[in-house]
Amino acid sequence: MASPESRDYNFSKSRKYLGSSGVTIDDSFPESKNIQKFKLSQKWKTPPYREIFEFFIEDFKTYKPLLSSIKNAYEVMLAHQREKIRALEPLKAKLVTMSEDCNERILAMRAEEKYEISMLKKEKMNLLKLIDKKNEEKISLQSEQVSKLRKNLAEEYLRYLTERDARKILIADLNELRYQREDMSLAQSPGVWGEDPVKLTLALKMTRQDLTRTQMELNTMKANFGDVVPRRDFEMQEKTNKDLQEQLDSLRADYEEVRKEHEILLQLHMTTLKERDQFFSELQDIQRTSTPRPDWTKCGDMVAGGPDRWQVLAEGKNSDQLVDVLLEEIGEGLLREKDFFPGLGYGEEIPPFLRFDGPVQNKKPSKRDVVKLLRDAWKERLAEEQKEKFTDFFFNFLERRFGPSNAIAWAYTIFENIKLFCSNDVMSQFYAVLMGKMTESVYINQKETVAQLLKEMTNADSQNEGLLTMEQLSTILKSTFPLKKEERIQELMEAVGWHPNTSSTDFFEYRSLFTENEEGRNEPFVQKLWEQYLVEKDEYLQELKQELGLELYEDVTLSKMRKALMTIDPTLDKQNMNTHLSQAFQIPVSELHEDSENENTVTRLQTAMERLQMADVKRVGPRESESGN
Q1: Nearest to 367 by CA among 315, 294, 416
Q2: Can you tell me the mean pLDDT for 187-209?
Q3: Residue 14 CA to its chain's centroid (Å)
Q4: Domain residue spans in the chain?
Q5: CATH classification number, 438-529, choose in 2.40.160, 1.10.238, 2.30.29, 1.10.10
């Protein structure tokens, strides 16, 4: 064995060598104990590592086995990492190929977008040209009409001047002829020489004065009304002007409409650009984060029962549901491997039926045994008056079935099973009621609905043959669910096997729609009923939220909630109204009165909606607008 002096010398030599190699060692290095700490810097390389460990292995005989095992472990890890790097080389090439494909697709999309942008620009130019053309037509029409009116006015003015001059000449000719006729009549009249010359002179004078006065009045009338347009021409011009004004207003309206359409097109173009940019960014995010679609058929070899059982489990399910099924299969195997469950203790947050400290035995029942036990629990629950809480009833039921000594073990076993198999209808519904996520009334009303539907089908089967036509099924569904939309009635019929090309006289076995296998799996028809119930509840609560007009973080009063419920569901009776309000505000039904102080009770809207989501909330009748139609 080496002396302490030699060990000190070797250790100082090792420190010196490690320091030159980039290795940092703790200063406190005891002689008689194992090495406690040593740190290698980030500049660690493989050759110094091997030389240092070989030096330690040779000089420290006492720790040679330990150091040799450490060295071997690092060698194995390095070899594993080299193999892993070598295996990842093809993946790197594949990533490069995928990147090139994605770049090509992005370039193609950009080219397509450029083409769309160019088409939109062309359309914009065409619209601008159309607007310019309309403006030019408007201006040309105005100038043309004004020039035409001026020309017509000038022509009328010349015509009236010519007519005025002609009338003056005609009047002068008439006066001349009248004077000549009077002179001739006086010359030819035998008694004219018998008249008094003074009288005749006076009459002539007075006549000439009248003629002068008349001539002056005529000249005044001509001067005052020579440029006046006749009423008929004025009305004609006024009508023409009115028509032109109407045409101008129509053109202005057309122009305003075209301008608004242009603004709408510009807004639409901007919205399209924003959507394009958003879709492009989403495409980049999807391309960056997306993974290849899994090949679910590979799971057939890993699931108990082989590909045939996997095909039954995977039928009609999407990828998210398939992941749940696969997790259930994996969890079932892990659950069966456990012999004991750890007790959760006696904390207040622990459900009463799970309060236990210490290991709890796993009874390892089969899935069908658990389903049968839950069915028996529901039968017993529905048969009693339901005075005690559901969690207390569940533990008391296990005590009566298995005895007080085994009740806690069965409680843990049942709880772990129903928590795992979330795709099983019986287990998932029992788990939701047990954990307070759903009220018992939801399960009870769903069962009553299914029973009522089966009763209606049985009454329609007058021959008791177990067969109904598709037409009878449609009639029964519409009478049983008068508030369901037509497309949801078709979904239920499609779950039975109806297709658009199916004859309405085709028969089907209606009793098989309500069967349930030993593992609690319902037929597609009953599953579709449950899915539609959940969707309709969400729609009803969303409509209630919109009617309230509040955000989830705001408070809502009981009176406002009552008013909103009556608005969206006018036929809601008082009993159901008080049940909903009691659930939302956690107030006993006996204390709910419209004139009570509770009407001012407030709660957070999000809390109220979550409480209503747990209960059996559904529409009782249509809105007033729908009932009126």
Answers
A1: 416
A2: 71
A3: 69
A4: 4-62, 338-437, 438-529, 549-629
A5: 1.10.238
8 A C-beta contact, residue 412 and residue 363: no
* Mode of pairing for the β-strands spanning 507-509 and 359-361: unpaired
**Three-state SS for 438?**
coil
Enclosing H/E stretch for 24: strand 23-25
- 234-255 b/e (C-beta count within 10 Å ≥ 16 → b): eeeeeeeeeebeeeeeebeeee
Residue entry with tokens 């549901």: 321
Dihedral angle sign, alpha carbons of residues 80, 81, 85, 91? positive
Segments in 189-318 forming alpha helices (H): 197-225, 231-289, 306-314
| pLDDT band with cut points at 50, 70 and 90 for residue 265 | very high
Range name among 145-149, 331-335, 605-609 with the lowest pLDDT average: 331-335
For the chain, give the mean pLDDT. 80
Q: Confirm if 310 and 299 have CB atoms less than 8 A apart.
A: yes
Exposure string for 497-522, b = 16+ CB within 10 A, e = fewer:
ebeeeeeeeeebebeebeeeeebbbb
Q: For 125-153, what is each residue's pLDDT tens digit?
A: 999 999 999 998 888 888 888 888 888 88
Least confident of 267-271, 329-333, 437-441: 329-333
pLDDT at 4: 43
238 CB-near residues (< 8 Å, 6+ apart): none
Tokens 């806690």, residue?
Answer: 408
Burial class (CB in 10 A: 0-12, 13-18, 19+), 272: middle
Q: Decide if 18 contacts 52 (C-beta within 8 A).
A: yes
> If you average pLDDT over residues 341-368, what whole number do you get?
87
Averaged pLDDT for residues 554-574: 87
DSSP 192: G
| Range 100-105 average pLDDT | 91
pLDDT at 301: 62
Of 229-233, 269-273, 539-543, which gets the smallest average pLDDT? 229-233
Torsion sign, CA atoms 439, 442, 445, 447: negative
Q: How far is CA 270 from CA 120, 265, 547, in A?
A: 11, 9, 33
Q: Helix axis angle, 440-460 relative to 367-383, nearest 10°?
A: 90
> Residues 491, 493, 498, CA angle at the centre, nearest 5°?
110
Count the Cβ atoms, other than its own, within 10 Å of residue 463.
Answer: 6
- How does DSSP assign 291-310, residue by residue? -PPP-GGGGGGTSTTHHHHH
Phi-psi region of 622 (alpha: psi -120 to 50; beta: other; left: phi over 0): beta
Distance from the Cα of residue 328 to its chain's centroid = 31
Segment 337-356 mean pLDDT: 87
- pLDDT tens digit string along 390-411? 888 888 899 998 998 888 999 8
By three-state DSSP, how is residue 469 classified?
A: strand
Q: What is the mean predicted confidence (pLDDT) over 86-113?
A: 89
Instruction: Give the CA diameter of the chain.
Output: 196
* pLDDT above 80 (res 25): no
Residue 346: closest CA among 358, 338, 332? 358
Classify 8 in phi/psi space as left (phi over 0), alpha (psi -120 to 50) or beta.
Answer: alpha
